Amino acid sequence: MTVEDQKPKFVLPNITDNINGWGPLENDVPDKLLDIPYTPFSKSERIGKIADWTSSQDYGNDKRKNYQRNDQIYGSGLSNAFNYRFAAEEEASFSLVDRASSSSKKTSNYRTAQKSNRQGSKLVRNYRPAYQQGYNRNKNGRRFTRQDVKILDDAVKIGDQWKAIEDIDMNKLAKSSFTVNDPSDISVYGTLNYYDLAIDRISAKSGVALKGAKRVIDNPSTADDEVIQSIAKSTSGRAVFATDSIISTLMCAPRSVYPWDIVITKCGDQIFFDKRDDSQAFDYYTVNENVNDNSIDQNDIINSPSQLSEETTRNCKCFAEQSVNKDTKYQFKEAYPFNDEDSNDEIGSVAFRYRKWALNSANEEPISLIIRTTLDAAVQQKSNMIANKVSSMEPVESTSPLDETLFMNIRTVDEFDLYRNTSWRKNLDSQKVGCITSEFRSNFNKLSKWAIESILSGADYIKFGFISRVNNKDNKRHEILGTHTFKPREFANHLQLTIENSWGLLKEIVDKLMQLEDGKFVLVKDAVKNTFTLYSVPDNAFDETDNEDEDSS
């Protein structure tokens, strides 16, 4: 045996470099390690822990930690196999007894009361929307982002054959600006009832029961709208087709928190924005979307986000029907376009106004934007307004002439918690503006979309009905407690919504799509980050037959 043979030998292990990510390759894991769970970690973390006792909701409470670094640790706060799980029953049965004597002396005088009032009014005056604040603080005083508050699922499952084209930062697009000229009317369909002015005399002390809706109003997708398809056939050059709910979602995208997706079809110079058949983002109104601390009690079924969304959407339809006089009408030249001959359903008060905008600057090739907008009711009022006094709005039959008729959209704001300090039954009659302001904070995105939709439709007013539950635990019975009226552009100013920026965001998206080849695409709003991703998808991505084949396989 030689001297070299007696020396210890070091044999290098076989290491495969993962150039596309962090961690072992999927096909290079030894068989004995396949079933071991893996927890995400940052490259700067100390690895080697058996269990993570700090990455639960109390993570980052240690004042010796750097708060900003805690927010950036990848995987912190996630529920995974390494996290310690509290025993809920044992935790609930444990309590501490405080034997220290507590002072019952209260110091309150006129000066402290005035200071409190000044601070309260300052909050209203200096209110800024949540998406502009950058960050806020949770109950423990630590900075948090939306990831700490809401863990949301993606709006649509990303298919294996989908190809990501571009990630778009909505905050950057929000800085764009574009000014459009007044639109022109293509056609108007439907019949409106006149608003019942007796509804405005309802007060919180004498609430009126909200009745169920018996009439029907359809909301077909862009592809199912035969009027849009007919307009598309007769339109030459570059053009974009969509409904007002889809366009308002895009124009208010930086304010949205919940995920959503839009199906886009490009055929030659024409682009169609549409919704999926099973998508609820454009058929139901959200509730408390912009609330920072929106913890959900899984046992409170009727107050879950989905149930509240259905409740507020139902209330809005019921109030819109109850607040109009069925014996009056403003009938347009074209009849309701989506009526089924075999159906005996009574059609509600609605007008579909198809309008066209020029979405191009002076030096660009023309782009026509055709949108189906909606009006909910007419209101009898003598006015010098000339915005709606055009030939396309002339009625075939009407209770009042055009020069004495204005148009409005009807929406509702809802109260689900009757025991809060700002109960509408106590404060609505004297503090109606304050009640509206509280809705700004919690439903910022929804109200912004309503303002955009009313501006697009050319409505003269937005009528809001205050709807409250009769019983805190009953989501079927409600009362009307009052109303409030805004002009759409004034309402947008209250929401700090700059219309030029919203048009600029929409134009940036349209310009990106015009540069693509023909095909089918999906624009997906991220569930956590304030971005959306543009995917190229197969032509049969959302076909029912294709989905059935995938399920059977």
Q: Structural class from helices and strands?
A: alpha+beta
Separation of the first and last Cα atoms: 64 Å
* Broad shape: globular
Total domain units:
2
Going across the major beta sheet, what is the strand order?
3-18-17-7-8-6-11-10-4-9-13
Please state the oligomeric state of the protein chains shown: single chain
Helix segment count? 15
Query: What is the number of strand segments?
Result: 18
Report the major sheet. 11 strands, mixed
Q: Any overview of this molecule?
A:
This protein has 553 residues and is of the alpha+beta class. It has two domains: 1-94, no CATH class; 163-547, no CATH class. The chain contains 15 helices and 18 strands. It has helices at 3-6, 67-72, 88-93, 110-125, 146-149, 170-173, 226-233, 244-251, 305-322, 424-427, 432-442, 444-457, 488-494, 499-514, 544-552; strands at residues 136-137, 143-144, 163-169, 184-195, 208-209, 238-243, 261-267, 270-274, 324-331, 350-358, 367-375, 377-380, 397-398, 405-415, 461-469, 478-486, 519-525, 531-537. The strands form three sheets. The chain has an eleven-stranded mixed sheet. The protein has a five-stranded mixed sheet with strand order 5-16-15-14-12. Helix 8 (244-251) crosses helix 12 (444-457). The longest helix has 18 residues, at 305-322. It is globular. It starts with a helix and ends with a helix. Residues 56-86, 101-151 and 548-553 have low confidence and may be disordered.
Structure summarized in a few sentences:
By secondary structure, the chain is of the alpha+beta class.
